[in-house]
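We were asked to recover a plausible sequence for a given structure. The inputs and outputs are reproduced exactly as logged, with field labels preserved.

PROBLEM: sequence recovery
POSITIONS: 442
GIVEN STRUCTURE:
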């Protein structure tokens, strides 16, 4: 017989919300604690003058099946938007060159590359596609451990060479992960290649990326502005300590990033401690600038290779998602820093950061040169832990943790760093942990 459990979920990002949602639906007594004033975590949105500034996650895609299912379940299918086939650009030798990775045929027209690089890019891509069959990016535990031993960089250098690595793969990996190809395993790259299959589209929520999180928590008991300070083991159960005092629970799900889990869990098991010590995250800073829409209306997403600028890895025009304009025909461009630069600049004052980022941004966005005096600072978000690094060997370590360590003493870890990247991965990880917690009561 199922015993109904008293469960605490720490962290109202997509992972914690999905976990709390599933456990609540199954009848358990769930409390969700969130330290911030808003829910959504790295998929959060701040609004100013009615305009959404997506702090972290920028896009969904058509493979986000669980996110889609939740939207339908909550009657918000109309919130799901799809970009019209979007143009990506690459900043290359002072110019923006149009790139599209939608089909092999289009690779041949990529003006940014030499003919030799184009040939090698096609070879490399075909080899990746061949090896990526059947891999699920959002559940990397199922992947063959052999693919987890080498880096994306080593693989691409072998098949594509330096130019293909720098302009195509390193630039795209840094656009999505903020770090370079050396910190990504071939296994994770294959997962990404598999996810961008036929019919791939960039999708979004029409009123900001936190829309789904905000709808889901309406069904939950959630305490915002309630940071959990410590999790301890007590004689009658597990203790959650915070500004609200002490509370006793049967199970605790820690859906924060790994360093926060390390900080708040007193006396984890050896397997939990060892695993948490193996986790690494890339940092970034997201700076949103209001700029004249007319100058950049043709741009959606621009990747900046390391060889062209060591500070900025990409920028994304929000007009493709949120066509309503600011006053005077402005749009918002979110600019992202590369991991190494973000680590260095994270502790700078806002003023210094704005100055540095604006200077670098103008270098890599030529259409703004003539209207630089009309570029305004809008909002800024620092991410010391933006994206987990799926470095070679990490997926294998994490798969072992799911077998041994997950659930020790009634404590469960949950989030995108558990072989479940991105918003969709976080949701699915939340569901998977909810299932484990529920099964532990049988
Ligand atoms: C800049 C950036 C761009 C991204 N772009 C995309 C994208 O385009 N598409 C995509 O799918 N994904 C993207 N991602 C990744 C995506 O945002 C994450 O994978 C996902 O949101 C992670 O969810 P999570 O629940 O695992 O963790 P989080 O969202 O980090 O949630 C953890 C929560 O725990 C809370 N918390 C922490 N400590 C405590 C405490 N002590 N007590 C209580 N609460 C606490 C935090 O405030 C937070 O709300 C991006 C991320 C960033 C940073």
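RECOVERED SEQUENCE:
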């Amino acid at each position: 017989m199922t015993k109904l459990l008293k469960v605490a979920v720490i962290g109202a990002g997509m992972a914690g919300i999905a976990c709390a949602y599933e456990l609540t639906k199954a009848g358990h007594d769930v409390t969700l604690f969130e330290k911030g004033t808003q829910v959504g975590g790295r998929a959060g949105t701040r609004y100013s003058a009615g305009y959404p500034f997506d702090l972290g996650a920028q896009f969904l895609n058509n493979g986000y099946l669980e996110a889609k299912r939740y939207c339908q379940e909550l009657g918000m299918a109309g919130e799901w938007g799809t970009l019209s086939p979007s143009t990506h650009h690459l900043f290359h030798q002072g110019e923006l060159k149009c790139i599209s990775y939608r089909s092999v045929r289009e690779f041949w027209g990529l003006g940014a590359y030499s003919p030799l690089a184009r040939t090698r890019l096609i070879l490399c891509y075909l080899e990746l596609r061949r090896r990526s069959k059947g891999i699920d990016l959002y559940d990397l535990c199922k992947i063959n451990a052999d693919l987890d031993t080498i880096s994306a960089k080593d693989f691409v250098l072998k098949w594509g060479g330096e130019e293909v690595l720098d302009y195509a793969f390193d630039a795209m990996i840094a656009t999505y992960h903020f770090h370079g190809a050396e910190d990504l395993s071939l296994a994770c790259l294959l997962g990404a290649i598999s996810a961008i299959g036929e019919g791939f589209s960039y999708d979004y929520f029409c009123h900001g990326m936190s829309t789904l999180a905000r709808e889901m928590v309406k069904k939950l008991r959630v305490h915002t502005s309630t940071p959990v300070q410590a999790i301890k083991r007590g004689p009658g159960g597990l203790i959650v300590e915070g500004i609200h005092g002490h509370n006793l629970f049967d199970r605790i799900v820690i859906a924060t990033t790994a360093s926060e889990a390390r900080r708040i869990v007193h006396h984890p098991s050896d397997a939990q401690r060892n695993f948490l010590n193996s986790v690494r995250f890339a940092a970034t800073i997201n700076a949103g600038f209001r700029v004249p829409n007319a100058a950049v209306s043709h741009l959606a997403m621009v990747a900046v290779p390391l060889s062209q600028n060591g500070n900025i890895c990409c920028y994304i025009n929000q007009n493709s998602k949120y066509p309503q304009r600011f006053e005077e025909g402005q749009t918002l461009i979110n600019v992202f820093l590369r991991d190494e630069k973000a680590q260095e600049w994270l502790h700078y004052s806002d003023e210094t950061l704005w100055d540095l980022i604006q200077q670098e941004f103008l270098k890599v966005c030529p259409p703004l040169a003539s209207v630089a005096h009309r570029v305004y600072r809008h909002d800024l978000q620092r991410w010391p832990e933006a994206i987990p690094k799926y470095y070679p060997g990490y997926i294998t370590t994490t798969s072992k943790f799911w077998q041994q360590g997950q659930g020790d003493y009634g404590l469960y870890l949950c989030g995108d760093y558990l072989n479940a990247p991105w918003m969709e991965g976080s949701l699915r990880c939340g569901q998977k942990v909810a299932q484990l917690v529920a099964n532990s009561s049988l």
